[in-house]
Amino acid sequence: MENVILVDKNDNEIGIGEKLKAHSNGGHLHRAISVFLFNDRKELLLQQRAITKYHSKERWANTCCSHPRPGESNEAAAERRLMEEMGINAKLEERFIFPYEAEVGSGLTEREYDHIFFGRYGGKPEPNKEEVQDWKWISIDEFYRWIKDKPEDFAAWVVLMADRFVEEARKYCED
Fold first, then answer.
1. What is the pLDDT of residue 52?
2. How many domains does the chain contain in total?
3. For the chain, how long is the longest CA-to-CA vector?
4. Of residues 64, 65, 79, 85, which has the active-site annotation?
5. Distance (Å, rounded) from C-alpha 20 to C-alpha 124?
6. pLDDT tens digits, one per residue of 4-13
7. Catalytic, out of 13, 103, 112, 174
8. CATH, residue 31
9. Does 175 reside within a domain?
10. Which pLDDT belongs to residue 1?
């Protein structure tokens, strides 16, 4: 059983909850992390979620995402999941926070206080097949057109944060 950190609307920890229960019955607000990696050509690394995932199966999403474990920092959780999902070790920096709520199928709801991390990586990922079905590098502009034209191809949280993400990604890639 995996636990998540339950939080209030200001991201203050208010308890611990079992992950699946935190996503059931309308969901409970909990802390999350999302990672977006960029290569030297300023392209974004996307993953297609595996068919074995408990929600958002086969949808395209950011490089990786998950939840910090109780007692684990957001940065440590982001680095851990990046290695577990994509086989990548990269320096990450938190760029913004994105609270959101979304239905994600199978009767589940995401209510997350999502900490968004960016990083740079120039190699080839070695994804965990239980987590990731496919992956691709894509320009920020191509990603934005795709998500606006076919939002159903993407996980709900990626669609919801697309405008803010693109704004922040363009700034990050200019640094």
1. 78
2. 1
3. 43
4. 65
5. 32
6. 999 999 999 9
7. 112
8. 3.90.79.10
9. no
10. 73
